[in-house]
Amino acid sequence: MRFIIQRDRLVQSVQDVMRAITSRTTIPILTGIKIMVTEEGVTLTGSDSDISIESFIPKEEDGNEIVEVIESGGIVLQARFFNDIIKKLPTDLVEIQVSNHLQTIIRSGQSEFNLNGLDPDEYPHLPQITEGNMFSIANDLFKTIVRQTVFAVSTSETRPILTGVNWQVENDKLTCVATDSYRLAMRKIQIETNNPAEYNIVIPGKSLSELSKILDDSKETVDIVITDNQVLFKSKNLLFLSRLLEGNYPNTSQLIPTHNKTEMIIDTKEFLQSIDRASLLARDGQNNVVKLSTLENNHIEISSNTPEIGKVIEQLKSKSIEGEDLKISFSPKYMMEALKVLEGTEMNIKFTGAMSPFIIQPTNDDSILQLILPVRTY
Amino acid sequence: MRFIIQRDRLVQSVQDVMRAITSRTTIPILTGIKIMVTEEGVTLTGSDSDISIESFIPKEEDGNEIVEVIESGGIVLQARFFNDIIKKLPTDLVEIQVSNHLQTIIRSGQSEFNLNGLDPDEYPHLPQITEGNMFSIANDLFKTIVRQTVFAVSTSETRPILTGVNWQVENDKLTCVATDSYRLAMRKIQIETNNPAEYNIVIPGKSLSELSKILDDSKETVDIVITDNQVLFKSKNLLFLSRLLEGNYPNTSQLIPTHNKTEMIIDTKEFLQSIDRASLLARDGQNNVVKLSTLENNHIEISSNTPEIGKVIEQLKSKSIEGEDLKISFSPKYMMEALKVLEGTEMNIKFTGAMSPFIIQPTNDDSILQLILPVRTY
């Protein structure tokens, strides 16, 4: 194996596949990056068994030569060292050559590294996925729906299924739901599919977060192929394969209240900042809660109190309040996380009493829904 | 106590005095910020007993009103909460008022915080320093000399005196020396004093670092007053008081070799980058060393080797090499830290054999000197 490559392109691709690589693997070869060189270009692979990422660097792009292939072949190199080295090489071009006994030479300017490689034949084979049924989402929309749901997954392994995001595809509609059983985030979008298949899968939250970090904001799309226990995301020069979580995701639709007792419309940013301030005196408190009370004349009061430190009270004007008077307590953390992913300057909160879950949505947009369980303090 | 203040100025001053405040103090009131209000303005104080910082916010500056004093007085407020709160207040003006029983109200827009304060009379008195003998250094020069020396102080408490920087004042010259006994950093500057006093003190490295972070890059100066066990730094609206380290600082002048066997001139940046690359394969090695060897034709070779990972070799052209051939090993960390604070594009390294300390200086500038002990590997 021997090739010369533009350093910046190599650095970018290595950083992408590094997202799948962890040093805490029980399979030593998975701490490496697999590099395969063919006449077409260079393919880099990283994997931790749960997530596998393949990044392809074509020989040529838009008429510019990116890789000069001198000899095909492959090698596995320690990911951490390889990544650190190429980032610091002195010139724009890098030559990588495998000599006998897997010894790999990395040359750039007057600098020559000699790394001990591993046999690429010993690298685990990625599962093959037949690409029959698939649907596509634009990169930026994909990143948005992930951002609007993935923060609500559970971080506890007591119910592993809740560490994933539930994706349901039905009638050209994708519904994404995440919940840690204290709050729930839901986002619906229209998709275009080439088949009428229905899916109900649970994708690990970590997989969606990592893929979001790799995808650029361009107008490219992600093609999504779902199988029994894997999901494959394909973007330009990139394959991202994740295992699915096994088990039945709870039926969350019954959690969402269908009627309400108090409804208000508030400026999203003002409300977020007010909760943020109130949380300062809530974080050390026993309950870590912020209170919301309705007042006269469409005003609401946000307050919190930690006796040993102090208390905070502030009033906000809401655009409208309808229904019963209300005093309710909730976690400022859950509220702020939900508000931060809402799109739209105004939002609608619908309460069903102080003990029941309430829902938050942008006004005039029911494709996003955030649900929070209140904290009992009265 | 009651006053109205521009929020940005308050935030800046609070952040400055916060640098002296630690939550790990044994004196509970020192987790607070002391706020004293007089007809002249507002004085904030933070202290951890070792370092004390006072920041003064004048009532008026350049004709603009900064503070409106309604009633003089004082209070001590929990620093962490106070700092977090004022940063997030909704409007540009903040009103702070102490009501009965040390209860303190912070108002901004529709937001009202109520904090439990402490009695300012119970806050420790700062040592008073009579300002007889002093000298001055421009802010930017002060920050430079600190940056060029403080990285070399010891981080180990086995010889506490080495955790400080030795400042010697003699004949209008200030010499700053720091060493952890493996390397040494020295910087000399001319100063102007109003007296012929001589000083030989050791200032805790932490004090110098923190003060450097507070001083702005303006053309202001720091006035320095030295007493038996304290040093006072005065800058515009700022008092920074630090205890001195007790004990005798080792006589370091005898460590610096006065003649050499090999001398070379190298491009500072090229050399730094080369050491940086070589250090990638040195960090996990048993010795954590990089080797330097002289070659023919004014070339040098930088290399390192960790058998289980790999090795790196690269050649650099030096501008000149004089004297004996040399093979020497040293810590890449110490070398890089020394090179990063050298000013000048070219530097001079003077070696006195593979087992002796060597010195690094910018060419044509002997006001800076970096000394490193080699590592024995041959």
Structure summary, number of beta strands of chain A: 29
> Domains counted in the coordinates of chain A: how many?
3
Strand count, sense and barrel status of the largest sheet of chain A are: 9 strands, antiparallel
Gap between N and C termini of chain A: 71 Å
Number of helices of chain A: 6
Task: Give the C-alpha Rg of chain A.
Answer: 25 Å
CATH classification, class level of the largest domain in chain A: Alpha Beta
Structural class, from helix and strand content of chain A?
alpha+beta
The biggest chain-chain interface is: A-B, 31 and 31 residues
What's the CATH topology label of the largest domain in chain A?
DNA Polymerase III, Chain A, domain 2
**Uncertain runs of chain A with pLDDT below 50, 5 residues or more?**
none
CATH superfamily of the largest domain in chain A: DNA Polymerase III, subunit A, domain 2
Beta strand % of chain A? 35-45%
What's the CATH architecture name of the largest domain in chain A? Roll
Q: Which percent bin holds the helix content of chain A?
A: 10-25%
**Average pLDDT, all residues of chain A:** 93
